[in-house]
Specification:
The protein is of the alpha/beta class. It is 27% helix and 26% strand. It has eight helices and 13 strands. Strands 5-4-1-6-11-8-12 form a seven-stranded mixed beta sheet. The chain has a two-stranded antiparallel sheet with strand order 2-3. A two-stranded antiparallel ribbon has the order 7-13. A hairpin with a 2-residue loop joins β2 and β3.
Length: 237
């Protein structure tokens, strides 16, 4: 199995912290976020690890991952970076990881052990983490609803109440070869402007709208967090 880490963007909301440093190299407990991801993947026996680069890519090269450079990183979103590795990803199941998150190897093992075409991990205990990060969790948290078989029926919309949120998507996805072909078909059906501006959650929402594939959600109760703002680094201390 392969993995691809999406690390092309600057992370402008981090302000001066990413002026000279890629966001994925910001540190949690004295370790770059990227090291957390690599250790979790390799700890689950995933050795073929690719990375989509863009901003300050030369600082990431020292990690000796399989690099796919998005030369248009400043004008495109995460899905465009993912598709820079389209051919490399076409012949095996693989895991997609955001680069601004940290987690342990059990999150990867959960995805490795599932047998659906498209799966994600989610945090069912999200509220305690969001309350540490935000005075009002609803400022940032998005809707997340499941059916009785843990298939996603809603994701990524603005939530007005806590009841609309059964968990939070973490930024980890597993897709089979069949699932990837479907994502490729959806992506290729878009015009260039749509491709450039498509984020990962919106791609998942497209899958739900098509109703050809289900997206299965697997609960994860281990250590994790995402880094969106300067204050997040302080929160995780």
């Amino acid at each position: 199995m392969k993995a691809i880490i999406l690390a092309a963007g600057r992370g402008s909301r981090m302000k001066l912290l990413t002026q000279n440093t890629p966001k994925c190299l910001l540190k949690i407990k004295e370790r770059p976020l990227l090291e957390w991801q690599i250790d979790a993947l390799r700890g689950s026996q995933i050795d073929q690890i690719g990375i989509a680069t863009g901003y300050l890519k030369e600082q990431i090269s020292k990690f000796s991952l399989i690099e796919f450079h998005n030369k248009n990183w400043a004008k495109t979103q995460m899905v465009a970076s993912l598709f820079c590795a389209k051919e490399w990803l076409s012949n095996s199941d693989f895991i997609i990881s955001y680069s601004d998150i940290f987690y342990d190897k059990s999150a990867i093992q959960i995805l490795k052990n599932c047998h659906h075409d498209i799966s994600i991990t989610f945090d069912p205990n999200w509220r305690s983490l969001w309350e540490k990060r935000f005075e009002d969790p609803l400022i940032d948290a998005e809707s997340f609803k499941l059916d009785s078989k843990n298939r996603i029926i809603e994701i990524g919309n603005r939530a007005k109440t806590i009841e609309e949120i059964e968990g939070q998507y973490m930024g980890l996805i597993k897709t089979s070869k069949k699932g990837w072909l479907h994502l490729v078909d959806l992506y290729e059906s878009l015009n260039n402007n749509q491709k450039d501006n498509l984020d990962m959650t919106s791609l998942l929402k497209m899958v739900l709208k098509e109703k050809k594939f289900s997206i299965y959600a697997h609960p994860y109760n281990g250590l994790w967090g995402e880094v969106d703002h300067e204050r997040d680094l302080e929160s995780y201390k």
